[in-house]
Amino acid sequence: PPTDLFERFCGLTDMDLPVFDISSDEFQADPLPAVRQMHQAGELVNVKVPLFGCLPALTRYRAVDDFLRDSKRFARSGKAAGKRSPPGLNWWMPKVFRAFAKNMLATDGADHRRLRSLVDQAFLKRNVDSMRPGITRIADTFLDDLERQQGDGPVDLLDDFCRQFPLAVICELLGLPDEDRPRFTRWFGSLGRFRGWWSFAQMIPGLIRARAYLLEQFRSCRNSPRPGLITQLVLAEQQGGRLSEPELLAMVFLLLVAGHETTTHLISNGLLALLDHEDQKRQLTDDWSLAPTAIDELLRYTSPVQMSKVRYATEAMEISGQVIHPGQMMIGLLVAANFDSDQFSDPFHLDLQRSPNRHLSFGSGIHVCLGMKLAKLETAIALERLFTRFPSLYLACDRKEIRWRSRIGLRSLESLPIRLQ
Ligand code: HEM
Predict the structure, then answer these.
(1) Which of 21, 106, 178, 276 falls between 20 and 30 A from 246, CA-CA?
(2) Mean of all residue pLDDT scores within the chain
(3) Could you give the ipTM of this predicted complex?
C-alpha cells in the first residue's frame, strides 16, 4: 500500500489529520489565515511535502518548544531511531547530497557537541559585536553601488542588496575570496525549490561545482593559512580526531548556505513588513535604539524559517490522540508557534516594542541557531543604513504584484522592486 511505500522510501506516513499545504502560493503570500485554522485544528496537523506526501507537524508554542528541546525523544539523527539515512536523505538520492549533509544539524549528542564547539566561539555575542564596523562598511559599499547604478529606475533590492550583503559577510567570516561570490549565487540558486523531480536534477551541477571549489579552498588554506574560519577548521582537521574532511566540507557548506540565505529573507521580508506598517516603521526610524526589539518582532512576525528540520521519534508515544511509532518523522511549525495566543498577547499584531518576545524563529534546544546574533546584527545594520541613507524609499510596484516563492519552510520573495528616492 502507498503508506508502506512512503515509509520505506521516504520515511513519511499518512496520519488521519487535517492537511495544510505550506508551500502553496496562498500560504506563502499570507500564512496568517492558515495559521489561525491550524490552531483551531489542534496541536498536531499534517503538512504536505511536495513529491513525498504528508508530515505530522506540531502547531502550539509549548509543544514545539518541548519537541525541539527534547533531543533524546526527538532526534535529528535517524540512527537514534534505528534508521540508516540522515534526516531528509534516502538511499536513492545522488551522492553529492550526502557529502554536504553530515553537518552539526544532522547529528545529536557527542558528535553534535564536537562539531558545534569548533565554531561556537566565532558566533558568540562579543565576537559578533566586534564585527559591527566591518559589517557596516560592507553594507555601505553595496548601497554606494546601488545609488550609483539606480539612475531614475527601480532596483531589485532582494538580489542587489538583501542577498549580496549577508553573502559578503559570511564569505569574509569564512575567509573566502570576495570575487568568488557570484559563483555561489549561481550554484546555490536552485537549492530548496522542490517543485518536481526535475528540481533535484537542477541542483546537482551546482553542488558538484561547489564541492570541487571548497575542496580546492581547503587545500589552499592548508598550504598558506589566511584569516578566516576555514583556516581554523582546516587546522582542527590537521590536528586529527577533531574533524574529518567530509565533516569539514559539510560544515563549511552549512555555514555558507545557512549563513546567508535565511538572513537575506529576514532583511527583505522585514523591510516589506515595515513598508506595510507605516506607523511601526516611523517608530523605528525615529529611534534606532528600538532595533533589538524590532528585529525580534520582525523575526516572529515574518520569519523566513517557517518550520524546523525533521526529527525522528526515538520511542513510541501518543500526541493529540495519535500513536507515534519509533522512527516516525515529525516537524515543529515555527510559524504557527510564533502566533500562539497562549504565549503572545495580540499575536497577529506587529508590535516593534514587544517585550518579552521569546519567538521560536531560531529554533530551540541544542540545535538553536548558531548564527542568530550575527543574523540580528546584519538585519539591524541593513535596515538602519537603508532607511538612514534613503529615508523616503518606497515600493516601486503595486503591493498586489509582490510575488512569493513556492518553497516549503522558507518564506522568500521573488523580488523586491524599490525606488530609493
Ligand atoms: C540552525 C534559523 C541565520 C547557522 C537554525 C535553526 C533555525 C535557524 C530555525 C534550527 C533548525 C532546527 O532545529 O531544526 C535561522 C534564521 C536566520 C538564521 C531565521 C536568519 C534570519 C543563520 C546564520 C548562520 C546560521 C547567519 C551563520 C552561520 C545555523 C547553523 C545551525 C542553524 C550552523 C545549526 C545549529 C546546530 O545544529 O547546532 N537556524 N538561522 N543561521 N543555523 Fe540559523
Answers:
(1) 178
(2) 91
(3) 0.99
Domain CATH for 179 = 1.10.630.10
User: Could you tell me the residue range of the domain that residue 383 belongs to?
Assistant: 2-419
- Number of structural domains (the chain) is 1
Name 112's Cβ contacts closer than 8 Å, sequence gap at least 6. 76, 104, 366, 367
Residue with the bigger pLDDT between 7 and 177: it is 177
Cα-to-centroid distance, 120 and ligand 1 (Å): 12
* Integer Cα distance of 360 and 333 in angstroms: 9
Report which DSSP code applies to 118.
T
Verify whether ligand 1 is closer than 6 Å to residue 367 (CB atom).
yes
Exposed, middle or buried by CB within 10 Å (0-12, 13-18, 19+), for 269? buried
Closest by Cα among 163, 158, 148, 140 to 397: 158
Residue 371 Cβ contacting ligand 1 at under 6 Å = yes
Which atom of ligand 1 lies nearest, measured to the CA of 309? Answer: 14
Residue nearest to atom 28 of ligand 1 (CA): 259
pLDDT tens column, 134-171: 999 999 999 999 998 877 789 999 999 999 999 999 99
* pLDDT score of 62: 98
Of 67, 51, 44, residue with least CA distance to 320: 44
What residue's CA is closest to ligand 1, atom 32? 369
Q: 5 pLDDT exceeds 50? A: no
Cell of 79: 540512527
> 213 alpha carbon to ligand 1 midpoint, in Å?
23
- The mean pLDDT value for 262-269 works out to 98
191 lines ligand 1 (CB under 6 A): no
> Cell 586529527 maps to which residue?
240
pTM above 0.90, yes or no: yes
281 lines ligand 1 (CB under 6 A): no
